[in-house]
Amino acid sequence: MACPFENDPVDEGAALLRGELNIRPVRVIRPRIDVLAFPEYYLFDRFTSQSIIYIHNLIRPYISNITNRSHALTSQQILCVALRFFANGSFLYNVGDAEHLSKATVCRAVRKVCLALKWLLPMFVVFPGHKPVRAIKEEFHRIAGFPSVIGCIDGTHIPITAPSHNEADYVNRKSIHSINVQIICDAAHIISNVEAKWPGSVYDARIYRESNLSNRLQCGEFDGLLLGDRGYPCEPRLLTPYPDPEPGPQQNFNRAHCRTRARVEMTIGLLKARFQCLRHLRVTPERACDIIVPCVVLHNIATIRGEQHPALQIEDADDDPIHLPAIGRTVRDTICNNHFRI
């Protein structure tokens, strides 16, 4: 009986014969899935085929392979692989199994699409929006009668795998490693500003204070107000609700403020419902930020084009439990007394 730990002499002989005859093993290429061949109802909660073609036309120059050697993926296949990852949030090898691709190929495809979509950020994410400022204010005013609003602001945590460097910086108040992302949106759920670079331990107020948009608002570049929760300081251009409202105008102010600001909570819920990968990113913090921004761009494209979305999941309110100075009390009191008296 031959020892099971020794090489099979038959296999060795076959290898020698192939070498002498210069016979290469047959390469088997598995068939790949044509996503656009599926019916529309299969894609309705992600993107329709027309929207996929639209996105493909935008980023095709940035993701196309230089050569078709080795059965390289087409630019359309690269985009569909990345969209599957964004929508499902599965492991890369799960996406590869579904698309008949290796994990390395899926990783390269997702990376290409992420970098290409980041180039489109200034085109699709514009503050205060693509519409005239007056139209934006009117849309917000129709919600609850709150005047001069050009955006609602909030922060959301995107869970990530614990990083190997500076791990403590990414632990948020819920003891979860995350990226704290600042989102500003308009009344139509279109995101007009995103800050995706801060660790989970950083408070919403600091992210806003350090942002370029905060300086632009303080300089009077924009004619309008932001609405935020109690995690932000009350400023002349950023209004928060009264901490202990008195009956009458202050309670009316808080009710209108809450109804109007709910748009940003709904927008964040839509973003995470459409792109399940944002429920947990198993990548480094730098790569996580490179995935969050493309998801925001895709969200705006889907919203502008009227795409349907999965069931909305609104997160619980998560105000920062810190005391912040209210330097915008004068503006808040003026609006309260002029617009919300009984």
UniProtKB/TrEMBL annotation:
<keyword id="KW-0479">Metal-binding</keyword>
<dbReference type="Pfam" id="PF13359">
    <property type="entry name" value="DDE_Tnp_4"/>
</dbReference>
<keyword id="KW-0539">Nucleus</keyword>
<dbReference type="GO" id="GO:0005634">
    <property type="term" value="C:nucleus"/>
</dbReference>
<dbReference type="InterPro" id="IPR027806">
    <property type="entry name" value="HARBI1_dom"/>
</dbReference>
<dbReference type="GO" id="GO:0016787">
    <property type="term" value="F:hydrolase activity"/>
</dbReference>
<keyword id="KW-0378">Hydrolase</keyword>
<dbReference type="GO" id="GO:0046872">
    <property type="term" value="F:metal ion binding"/>
</dbReference>
<comment type="function">
    <text>Transposase-derived protein that may have nuclease activity. Does not have transposase activity.</text>
</comment>
<dbReference type="InterPro" id="IPR026103">
    <property type="entry name" value="HARBI1_animal"/>
</dbReference>
<comment type="similarity">
    <text>Belongs to the HARBI1 family.</text>
</comment>
<dbReference type="InterPro" id="IPR045249">
    <property type="entry name" value="HARBI1-like"/>
</dbReference>
<keyword id="KW-0540">Nuclease</keyword>
<protein>
    <recommendedName>
        <fullName>Putative nuclease HARBI1</fullName>
    </recommendedName>
</protein>
<dbReference type="GO" id="GO:0004518">
    <property type="term" value="F:nuclease activity"/>
</dbReference>
<keyword id="KW-0963">Cytoplasm</keyword>
<feature type="domain" description="DDE Tnp4">
    <location>
        <begin position="153"/>
        <end position="300"/>
    </location>
</feature>
<dbReference type="GO" id="GO:0005737">
    <property type="term" value="C:cytoplasm"/>
</dbReference>
